[in-house]
């Protein structure tokens, strides 16, 4: 089955700086890669996703890049703000048929220092 | 707010007992996925139902079962509970119009004493 590795487990950055979280996956059949943000006491919230026919996707301060050959994808957050502090999860799935659940990385605790 | 609702918010029970967790998907979504989140295992996919039918199984124990009803709400049944079943249980829903995006509910925190 799919295995997703996520690094780092904790990331502390100064407010206004950029943050980068990296994930690798093992199953070359995976073709859908979402990122979720989870705040304390809440469920994961989808913030951006990318499909394997696209190399990069951007939404305001958030961007995701995908390298299918190397089987890795990354989340980039620019101009970080205090409200960006949370745990971020990457995930992967084979969206064929839409049946499979998501395989998640272990999460990155992002801390924005004021 | 994702539009997915889960009840109860918290559940405290004893080993050996059985509990039922409930999930209502977003309006119009036919798919419901169940996940378990624990400190040691992280977020793990348990099972997927689509329009009342089981579509895929993940790391779901035999003591656990689920079903989806005609009104599309779903229930996750956990029986013969063990201390290690203490975790957050999330459901997520997905509709035909949102491709593979899964929208998560607020979760049920289960504590087994």
Structure description:
The complex is a heterodimer of chains A (114) and B (113). Chain A has no helices and eleven strands. Chain A has strands spanning 4-7, 10-14, 19-25, 32-38, 45-51, 56-59, 62-67, 72-77, 86-92, 103-104, 108-113. In chain A, the strands form two sheets. In chain A, strands 2, 4, 5, 9, 10 and 11 form a six-stranded mixed beta sheet that branches. In chain A, strands 1-3-8-7-6 form a five-stranded antiparallel beta sheet, with no helix packed on it. In chain A, a hairpin with a 6-residue loop joins strand 4 and strand 5 (45-51). Chain B is mostly beta strands and 113 residues long. Helices cover 0% and strands 53% of the residues of chain B. Chain B has no helices and eleven strands. Chain B has strands at 5-7, 10-13, 19-24, 31-38, 42-50, 53-57, 64-68, 74-78, 87-94, 103-104, 108-112. In chain B, strands 2, 4, 5, 6, 9, 10 and 11 form a seven-stranded mixed beta sheet that branches. In chain B, strands 1-3-8-7 form a four-stranded antiparallel beta sheet, with no helix packed on it. In chain B, strand 4 and strand 5 form a beta hairpin. Chains A and B meet through strand 4, strand 5 and strand 10 of A and strand 4, strand 5 and strand 10 of B.
Detail the topology: elements first, then pairings.
The complex is a heterodimer of chains A (114) and B (113).
Chain A (H helix, E strand, L loop, with lengths): L3 E4 L2 E5 L4 E7 L6 E7 L6 E7 L4 E4 L2 E6 L4 E6 L8 E7 L10 E2 L3 E6 L1
Parallel strand pairs in A: 2-11
Antiparallel strand pairs in A: 1-3, 3-8, 4-5, 4-9, 6-7, 7-8, 9-10, 9-11
Chain B lengths: L4 E3 L2 E4 L5 E6 L6 E8 L3 E9 L2 E5 L6 E5 L5 E5 L8 E8 L8 E2 L3 E5 L1
Parallel strand pairs in B: 2-11
Antiparallel strand pairs in B: 1-3, 3-8, 4-5, 4-9, 5-6, 7-8, 9-10, 9-11
């Amino acid at each position: 089955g799919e295995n997703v590795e996520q690094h780092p487990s904790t990331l502390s950055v100064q407010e206004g700086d950029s943050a980068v979280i990296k994930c690798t996956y093992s199953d070359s059949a995976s073709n859908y890669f979402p990122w979720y943000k989870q705040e304390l006491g809440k469920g994961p919230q989808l913030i951006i996703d990318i499909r394997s026919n696209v190399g990069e996707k951007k939404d305001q301060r958030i961007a995701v890049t995908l390298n299918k050959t190397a089987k890795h994808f990354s989340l980039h957050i620019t101009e970080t703000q205090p409200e960006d502090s949370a745990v971020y999860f990457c995930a992967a799935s084979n969206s064929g048929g839409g049946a499979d659940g998501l395989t998640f990385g272990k999460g990155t605790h992002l801390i924005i220092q004021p | 707010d994702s539009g997915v609702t889960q009840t109860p918010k918290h559940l405290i029970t004893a080993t050996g007992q059985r509990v039922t967790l409930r999930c209502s998907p977003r309006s119009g979504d036919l798919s419901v996925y169940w996940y378990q989140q624990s400190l040691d295992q992280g977020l793990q996919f348990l099972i997927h139902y689509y329009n009342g039918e089981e579509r895929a199984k993940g790391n779901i124990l035999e003591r656990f079962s689920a079903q989806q009803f005609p009104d599309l709400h779903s229930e996750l049944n956990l029986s013969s509970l063990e201390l290690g079943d203490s975790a957050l249980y999330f459901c997520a829903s997905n509709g035909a119009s949102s491709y593979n995006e899964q929208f998560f509910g607020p979760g049920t925190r289960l504590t087994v004493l």
